[in-house]
Amino acid sequence: FFCPGFQVAPETKAVMKWLRSIPFVLSASLHGGELVVTYPYDYSRHPMEEKMFSPTPDEKMFKMLAKAYADAHPVISDRSELRCGGNFVKRGGIINGAEWYSFTGGMADFNYLHTNCFEVTVEVGCEKFPLEEELFTIWHENRDALLNYMEMVHRGIKGIVSDKFGNPIKNARISVRGIQHDVTTGN
């Protein structure tokens, strides 16, 4: 997953361990510098190719999750191409990460490949390093979108996989016909 020789920071290792120990199913990484929601894969299948669409087997689900956020965000859903993030208007404010730009070592790809967690990356504002006085506005622009996104955790199939005695089965593999990406049950 990471490039050879790539040093993983201790805090990143801690988050990876945490993600493997708790059965999260949905997360978002918040960044600054643009107004768009990206979804995996962030690393292109052909790393030498720039801006290459690189879908996961769960492409439809990731698009739905990203749209849930983007459609509830007052600026991302604004149809003006003259604003920050305006170049994503024709895409509905979302894009496959590798199609925007490819990079290795992203948490969204890690979560998808190594946990049951689906993660999108939200570029929450035009400034990479917003000023303190801008944070209140950024929070209000993203609050309802975050809540709408979190409600998506209730989509899909959920329940308990158990044996014939009703005992939960740990690490049972769940497969969906037509999607080549299994998930496993928690503890």
From TrEMBL:
GO terms for molecular function: metallocarboxypeptidase activity; zinc ion binding. Keywords: Carboxypeptidase, Glycoprotein, Hydrolase, Metal-binding, Metalloprotease, Protease, Zinc. Its cofactor is Zn(2+). The active site is at residue 123. PROSITE patterns: CARBOXYPEPT_ZN_2, PEPTIDASE_M14. It holds the Pfam family Peptidase_M14. InterPro entries: CarboxyPept-like_regulatory, CARBOXYPEPT_ZN_2, Peptidase_M14, Peptidase_M14_domain. GO terms for cellular component: extracellular space. Residues 1-153 form the Peptidase M14 domain. SMART domains: Zn_pept. Belongs to the peptidase M14 family. This is CBPZ Carboxypeptidase. The lineage of its organism: Eukaryota, Metazoa, Chordata, Craniata, Vertebrata.
